[in-house]
Design a protein that fits this description.
The protein contains three helices and four strands; from the N terminus they run αββββαα. It is of the alpha+beta class. The two termini are about 15 Å apart.
């Protein structure tokens, strides 16, 4: 993703990087391997979904943001926690 946005980002000394996790709701999916039961703050409960951890650069002066990186949260497949993904994305971003 970085290769696509690197030339578009407008950096500033006031800019910052935000990490967030979200769950893509897949309540009606029965054959997607990455779907698992996990807590969703949006749904205020446990749902079936795909976990995604994102990294976003924010320029508050322009009130704009750019997605820099994302990772699929699949602890059964790669053994990584959400914080492991954040560490990797932060290292890659720096």
């Amino acid at each position: 993703m970085w290769e696509h946005v690197a030339t578009q980002i407008v950096p500033t000394t006031q800019g910052y990087v935000v990490f967030d996790d979200t769950v893509l709701d897949k309540q009606h999916s029965f054959a997607i391997d990455l779907v698992r039961r996990q807590y969703s703050g949006n749904a205020h409960g446990v749902i079936k979904g795909i976990g995604v951890v994102t990294c976003v650069y924010v320029n508050p002066e322009l009130n704009e943001f750019w997605f820099i990186d994302y990772r699929i949260y699949d602890p059964a497949g790669d053994g990584k926690s959400k914080l492991d993904h954040v560490r990797e994305m932060l290292s890659h971003t720096v």
